[in-house]
Design a protein that fits this description.
By secondary structure, the chain is an alpha+beta fold. It folds into 4 domains: 142 residues, Beta-Lactamase (2-Layer Sandwich); 94 residues, Beta-Lactamase (2-Layer Sandwich); 71 residues, Helix Hairpins (Orthogonal Bundle), CATH 1.10.287.130; 156 residues, Histidine kinase-like ATPase, C-terminal domain (Heat Shock Protein 90, 2-Layer Sandwich), CATH 3.30.565. The strands form 4 sheets. The chain has a 5-stranded antiparallel β-sheet, sandwiched between helices. Strands 7-6-10-9-8 form a 5-stranded antiparallel β-sheet. Helix 1 packs antiparallel against helix 4, helix 4 crosses helix 5 and helix 13 packs antiparallel against helix 15.
Amino acid sequence: LILLAMQVIGVYLLRSLEQYHLKNLSSFLGNQAQLMSSFLERYLREPYDMDHIDGLLMEFDKQMTVEIKEIYVLDPIGRVISTSYSETSRGKKLLSNEIAKAMAGEIGEDIREDPSANKRLKYLAYPIQSGGNVIGILYIVASLENIYSTLSDIKEILTGATALALVITAVLGFALARTITGPIQEVTSKAAELAKGDFDQTIEVRSNDEIGQLTKTFNYLTLRLRDTLGEISNEKSKIEAILTYMADGVIAVNNIGEIIHINPRAKEMLGVYTDVIGQDFTHVFSDAFGGITLKKLFAQDDDIHEISLDLESSILHAHFASFRNEEGDISGIVIVIRDVTEQEKLEMMRKEFVANVSHEIKTPITTIRSYAEALMEGALEDEAVSGKFLNVITNETDRMNRLVTDLLQLSKMDFQEKQWIKEIIELPQIVEDVVMKLDVTVKQKDMEIDFDFPDKPLTILGDRDSIEQVILNILGNAIKYTPEGGNIKIRGNLVNDKVVFSIKDNGIGIPREDLPRVLERFYRVDKARSRDLGGTGLGLSIAKQIIEAHLGTISIDSDYGEGTIVTITFPIYDKNAL
């Protein structure tokens, strides 16, 4: 590791130094070239002033602090005008990538090896411009041997330092290993005795270093093992208690099909009241588990299997999970049984709700489409017929609007997005307001509404519009399903700090078997008649949720053919409780 670290550091250092020196050289040559070009610019107009150009080159060559091999002054197409190296080069055309870039007005640089001298050289081509045009090129060739000679010396120093570090490390490592090996061997022998069950093993602590800490830890381990074994026993008891009293049933079976554990909840779910430990699982539970056998489960590749058990009074989900030994072979199966009766009921209600929504929306859409097609096919020309058809379309559209409005209101209450604006409400006053709104309908059906409220105030805290909606819905149902000449009684009273409010009619009533479901969404006792009367099937559901949001209750009692009574309770408003 030390050798690798030294090599990595050495390589990184050499690369960094190389980049540093090359960058400095490039910057220096660029600055010098810029300075020289400013002097040469005035002489690079044909005919060229060769004396001044040659003199400038000689002067700059003397002042260079780096080893310059050659300095050329080229014309815009790369021909040598002047050089500090050899007069024989005059007039020759030089071509290279860096000169080509300089012809285009850019600074060109490159590092190449001179094949004749086997040395690395730095090439810099600097464009000399006048009025935005390239009038000449300053071409400088510098030697890099000084830089790479310095890097070679540094490399030798690093190599020597690495070798010395390895020798010192080897000596120190050997000495340190001898001080560690002895105590570790003692710990190893004591651990072997400990593994055999002898927990009285201790080791003398001779130092406070890492080996001493290891020795202390070993001694502490022997002291803690007895406590740990006791804790394991306690944990086992806890797990047994959890399995005994958990809400799910658990059955464990070994690989030959014998029941090795069954908790009381599993017995209760499966109706087993005798001890079945040690008995064959297939023999005891084959019927309850739909004829499934452990032979089939063991033959499956999946470690987890799930089935549904439809019993007489409940629906169960059984999860089969195999457990394996150290070799990876299946050594048994754990069966977890969960009662999902309520979940299945909720899922059935959800499916029924979706089906009802689809049906309630599809029915008016079908009607609207049918009448619209009839109008398009010529009925529009008959004013009497078209008027009736358009009236039907309008009614069905209103019906869909009411349905969507009710659904949105339910959704807001389901997701607790409904904003309740609560205020102090006198219940008799809001009842009178609702009766006033329904007065026309009451008179049309020649009905009578009786009030019975006590003299003391019936005050509640609630959202006025929502409470009015509840009373309007329930009283509207009473009027709707009570024949002409019927009677409706509205009562209010205080009972145990509760405002009890009831609406009783002598209408058609509700069959007893339908009472538990009348508050469900879209549930109708007489579906055809409810639709004819314009109901969406959501009114009572909305009323129930509004009442419960106000910490109240609603109950319905009825006898078919005799009438219905709806009873609502609200907490009485107590200003001292706020």
